Amino acid sequence: MTRPITAGVDGSEESLAALAWAGREAVRRGLALRVVHAWRYEPHAAVEGDRDTQAQWVRDTVAGAVRTVTERHPGLDVSADVLEGDAVDTLVAAAAEAELLVLGSRGQSRVVGFLLGSVGQQVIAATTRPVVLVRSGDRPAAEVDGREVVVGQEGGPEDSAAALGFAFETAAARGATVRAVRAWTLPPMFAYSPGSLHLLDEAGGPVPFEKKALAEAVQPWRDRFPDVPVVEHVEMGSAGQVLLSMAGRAQLMVVGRRARRTAVGARIGSVAHGVLHHADCPVAVVPPA
Question: In Å, what is the CA distance from 173 to each residue of 70, 99, 213, 248?
């Protein structure tokens, strides 16, 4: 079964930017586009009126969004669903049926960063599908002019396989370069086991070791996508900071997800959290395969 690209909309500027991004991506990949609005009647909502009045406003909002995207992409197969229920549960269920889910990310400023919001964070933590967050200022021009698909890699080849696969597939659809980024730091000496010290010595030091690890992780995807140009980037520093330093050259940033539940809610991993809040480009969060 061919999955659509699904965009969650709520009438906000951020969600309309996400819908525009999703429409362009659906055209590139030759997929259908599904527009979803999760709705629940709220007596004290900004839209005054009874249940029927609010429901009609929601339908009109979604219909207007669909008209906009179909006018931009006349040949695109677009469907729309207004689904009543909890926003997180509704979007997680919609994502399960999608190739990827696209949501808006509310912007504040370059200093403060971007507000992911509790709904977005919970959806990312719960879904088994990739989620792309798009801020309101995103424009099609940011996807050209040589900008790259930047993807973070860590651990062994299997640890970032899902994120690398998504990055290469996206770059192939866009005719873009993949920049695979691996960050490393020097841990305290007691953290090295005799075995790891031996591996470092065989590799000629930490930098050659990290470059070799990145090359091994990327090679299967080079083989699968031979026409996609690749840059392998190894840099000393924290993974979040190194990736954020690449945001200016990125048309899309791809990171893996390490979701876990805590007493105070869902957590998606420090690297994904930092990139989502501060990168000034769309960010894809990809769960483990």
Answer: 20, 14, 26, 21
